[in-house]
């Protein structure tokens, strides 16, 4: 089969948890039954036994990531100097571990792999081991990325596939499918684990393109002629691709190197070999944790906000500097702390995805509003909170504004700047009096602020409107300024009402060009009526 591979670089983002290469401290247990991980949540089935010599792992939700972490490789070593080797072992994630006492539950082969030669039975007696681990690249020198058609597929109405032998230190976060030679792509959604599906199956031979992320960078991988026109269920097809991307180190020196058998964290002597989640001890621990959280919340003094919902404008990229993503997460924490819900652009990548996922994880309601045309570009198939699709960009901004009590702009590109300036303009025209804030992370918006000062000095912006929005270098200070904001009262500007204006009859006998402009203006005004 002839394969043509095109590679297009993008600035996309993925969660740092699943792609970082820093060393983490935790505990691991093991499955006593050899076949336990073969039927894991990733959906690899009996194929899993052939992965990595059977050294497999079930990972915590933060690593499993709703299936994006399936196929990831981790190097794990235990800390008992008498039993454990310095090299440890490498495992592949094939399942999800819901027991919050360990980050991983290993197959017995994986657990024994951490031991020194001849100490396999001794390490099994530990049941649970203190470990340190880090993400490492998966290496499939003799295998390309493969696509397996699932048995549940039903031509021509339903197609489900899973990806095998995903190399490097990567995650597949979006998949599109199209007929070979066609540019009419249909996006697939993650059904579960490593399985992606669609009910919009193109005819004929099929090509795939995938967004593959590594750390904060992402690429489109495009493989043509992957599935033949007569594709069969249960058959594995070669994509012709080898994925080898590796994330850059993003941790401090102390966190980014193997430690030399540091002192173990307090052991859980009561934790026997997994599974034991049904024990009363587990229930007691869970209740104790919940009780502690409740007590902490009761002790916190919660200041009621004047807002209920905050609209955040930000990029579908995370940028090249860690400070931007940290600022997004800091803003999310501030919103959660104040019990504020989020309205945003509906994407699940970049700063958009970081803010939405963090607010959602913190218990806040998340409303994403996204144009249908951008679904395949700004969403990875994983829905965060409530997502509403609209017809276009103007309707998106109108809906975001209608559902929000104030606006915050994080760093972003043209789209973010356009959204920010439009809501500022609406405030200038008197369409709304909702506070607008600029999160000026590490001086990102300094030149914009300088431009506005210049426009005021040269008479293009009224001095009274210079402070029609507020800015701050961090989330806490910015939210406080928004809480204290008092709308600018400018007697020189009439408060406009789009609804009244669009009810006025159009001028008589307009020219074709004027008629077209009136129609656009009426549509625009109707969309932004707040």
UniProtKB/TrEMBL annotation:
Identify the stretch annotated as signal peptide in this record: 1-18
| Organism placement in taxonomy | Eukaryota, Viridiplantae, Streptophyta, Embryophyta, Tracheophyta
Coiled-coil ranges per UniProt: none
GO biological process terms on file: anatomical structure morphogenesis; cytokinin biosynthetic process
The record's annotation in PANTHER family points to: CYTOKININ RIBOSIDE 5'-MONOPHOSPHATE PHOSPHORIBOHYDROLASE LOG5, LOG FAMILY PROTEIN YJL055W
State the reactions this protein catalyses. Answer: 9-ribosyl-trans-zeatin 5'-phosphate + H2O = trans-zeatin + D-ribose 5-phosphate; N(6)-(dimethylallyl)adenosine 5'-phosphate + H2O = N(6)-dimethylallyladenine + D-ribose 5-phosphate
Instruction: Enumerate the PROSITE patterns for this protein.
Output: EXPANSIN_CBD (PS50843), EXPANSIN_EG45 (PS50842)
Gene3D superfamilies, sorted: 3.40.50.450, Expansin, cellulose-binding-like domain, RlpA-like domain
Q: Which protein are we looking at?
A: cytokinin riboside 5'-monophosphate phosphoribohydrolase
Q: Which residues form the Expansin-like EG45 domain?
A: 39-143
Role of this protein: Cytokinin-activating enzyme working in the direct activation pathway. Phosphoribohydrolase that converts inactive cytokinin nucleotides to the biologically active free-base forms.
Q: A GO CC term?
A: cytosol
**Main EC class the enzyme belongs to:** hydrolase
